[in-house]
């Protein structure tokens, strides 16, 4: 007798198709997602808050024939959700219930998605492990002895554990793509300004980018379309029209010029063979692959550290006890370290030495990418220097996140779109490696067409063959 597959394991595209045809009911869908949460959430610590009215909202979304028909979506807990607690994983906001939706939350709801719950993250998004959360670390569903990455670790883990149909995260320098790689899911960081930052607890305002964490590239494409676009409430959103990203899914990679980055960086010897195997797949499909030389990403660590700490010291100044109930003495150790370092680098006599110099080097990275994109359509590298680290790996390592995100920081500080997709699974540990694909600004279509083509011709995506 064939065992019924849990509806929680469906992709977003599959879920929508089955709901439209009547082959799947919302009752079945929510029962299966609820069951997955009940079984695993206490152990993995993925959701900090669950929405009591999720099922009611789902019924209305289905009745109104919205595009997403009431599917349950996990939302990172630094994104404001009206009448649903939003903590940024910090005890400073332990009891904060927003009276408005972030633009991302609003657009998700308008599309017919339902905020199922709020996912754990590194407190204030400060980290790449989800170990700095003041509500306890999240564990990796692929192997609970390991970390899920961060700062969107809870959102990536929710997708990997089939505890939602899709999820929303934010990236400042790797915080969507790195946990996607560690959890074996798809993470798409849009061009800076493609998706509004309004209503999101700001970390580094000049690089923060909300985006989807999903089971497949196709799912990420669906989510991105509905989140994107100009927002009158947020001045850094772009004026560009939002294209139909799904048109890029079937284009393939024939004739695409691919530059292979960072393979000569020390410490990637164990990862490179799997990225090179992935590139051979792209070559077999007709892409033209070359080794490419770019600025050393180690320099991006310095740029990001200085700029991000400076912006953190400014952004976190607003969180006082008068507004939010708890004072700044409730900040965790990581937040305090970043505030102190940022205040120092912005202080009189040091801003020229540090912050202004960092911004000049940031401009050099932009010019270097402009040079590379004159020759290549996309750039490919490993997402992370290795597999997910073991629980406790961040202890005593002040630069843990910067080192783990080193290969992503250049594209983050320059505002480029990128996607991480699974490209290998270790059969011994069940841990994944990710391949990072980057394109010029506003060319998410290029990363989508490449990622989808690779996904269709390989076995590494856990959900691709779901029936």
Helix and strand arrangement:
Elements: H1 12-21, H2 26-44, E1 47-50, H3 54-63, E2 72-76, H4 103-110, E3 114-119, H5 153-160, E4 166-171, H6 177-183, E5 186-189, E6 209-214, H7 217-227, E7 257-260, H8 272-284, E8 288-291, H9 297-315, H10 321-324, H11 333-346, H12 352-375, E9 378-382, H13 400-404, H14 409-413, E10 418-425, E11 432-438, H15 444-456
Parallel strand pairs: 2-3, 2-4, 7-8, 7-9
Antiparallel strand pairs: 1-3, 4-6, 5-6, 5-10, 9-11, 10-11
Helix content: 25-40%
How many E-type strands?
11
Structural class: alpha/beta
* CATH fold assignment: Amidase signature (AS) enzymes
| CATH class descriptor | Alpha Beta
The number of helices is 15
How are the strands of the biggest sheet laid out side by side?
Answer: 1-3-2-4-6-5-10-11-9-7-8
In CATH terms, the superfamily is Amidase signature (AS) domain
The string of secondary-structure elements, in order, is HHEHEHEHEHEEHEHEHHHHEHHEEH
Give the tally of structural domains.
1
Nearest-integer average pLDDT:
96
Radius of gyration: 21 Å
Shape: globular
Largest sheet: 11 strands, mixed
Describe the structure.
- The structure is a single chain.
- It is built from 15 helices and eleven strands.
- Strand 2, helix 4 and strand 3 form a beta-alpha-beta unit.
- The protein has one domain (7-456): Alpha-Beta Complex (Amidase signature (AS) enzymes).
- The protein has helices at 12-21, 26-44, 54-63, 103-110, 153-160, 177-183, 217-227, 272-284, 297-315, 321-324, 333-346, 352-375, 400-404, 409-413, 444-456; strands at residues 47-50, 72-76, 114-119, 166-171, 186-189, 209-214, 257-260, 288-291, 378-382, 418-425, 432-438.
- The longest helix has 24 residues, at 352-375.
- It is α/β, with parallel strands linked by helices and 467 residues long.
């Amino acid at each position: 007798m064939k065992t019924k597959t849990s509806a929680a394991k469906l992709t977003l595209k599959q879920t929508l198709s089955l709901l439209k045809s009547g082959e799947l009911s919302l009752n079945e869908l929510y029962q299966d997602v609820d069951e997955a949460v009940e079984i695993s959430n206490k152990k993995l610590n993925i959701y900090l808050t669950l929405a009591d009215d999720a099922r009611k909202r789902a019924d209305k979304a289905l009745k109104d024939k919205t595009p997403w028909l009431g599917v349950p979506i996990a939302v990172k807990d630094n994104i404001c959700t009206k009448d649903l607690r939003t903590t940024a994983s910090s005890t400073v906001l332990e009891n904060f219930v927003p009276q408005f939706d972030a633009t991302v939350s609003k657009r998700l709801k308008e599309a017919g998605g339902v905020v199922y719950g709020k996912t754990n993250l590194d407190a204030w998004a400060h980290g790449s492990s989800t170990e700095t959360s003041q509500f306890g670390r999240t564990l990796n569903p692929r192997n609970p002895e390991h970390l899920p990455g961060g700062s969107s670790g809870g959102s990536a883990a929710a997708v990997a554990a089939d505890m939602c149909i899709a999820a929303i995260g934010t990236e400042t320098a790797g915080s969507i793509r790195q946990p996607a790689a560690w959890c074996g899911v798809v993470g798409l960081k849009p061009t800076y300004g493609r998706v509004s930052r309004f209503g999101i607890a700001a970390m580094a305002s000049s690089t923060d980018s909300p985006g989807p964490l999903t089971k497949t590239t196709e799912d990420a494409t669906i989510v991105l379309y509905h989140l994107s676009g100009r927002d009158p409430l947020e001045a850094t959103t772009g004026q560009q029209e939002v294209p139909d990203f799904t048109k890029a899914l079937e284009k393939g990679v024939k004739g695409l010029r691919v530059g292979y980055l960072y393979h000569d960086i020390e410490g990637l010897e164990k990862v490179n063979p799997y990225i090179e195997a992935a590139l051979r797949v792209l070559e077999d499909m007709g892409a033209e692959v070359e080794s490419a030389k770019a600025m050393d990403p180690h320099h991006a660590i310095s740029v990001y550290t200085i700029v991000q700490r400076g912006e953190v010291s400014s952004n976190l100044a607003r969180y006082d006890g008068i507004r939010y109930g708890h004072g700044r003495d409730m900040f965790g150790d990581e937040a305090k370290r970043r505030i102190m370092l940022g205040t120092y680098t912005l202080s009189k006599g040091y801003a020229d030495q540090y912050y202004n110099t960092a911004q000049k080097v940031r401009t050099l990275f932009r010019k270097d990418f402009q040079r590379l994109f004159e020759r290549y359509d996309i750039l490919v590298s490993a997402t992370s220097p290795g597999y997910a680290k073991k629980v406790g790996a961040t202890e005593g390592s002040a630069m843990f996140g910067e080192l783990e995100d080193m290969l992503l920081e250049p594209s983050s500080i320059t505002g480029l779109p990128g996607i991480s997709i699974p490209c290998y699974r270790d059969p011994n540990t069940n841990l994944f490696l990710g391949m990072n694909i980057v394109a010029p600004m506003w060319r998410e279509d290029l990363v989508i067409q490449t990622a989808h083509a690779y996904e269709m011709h390989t076995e590494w995506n856990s959900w691709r063959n779901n029936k």
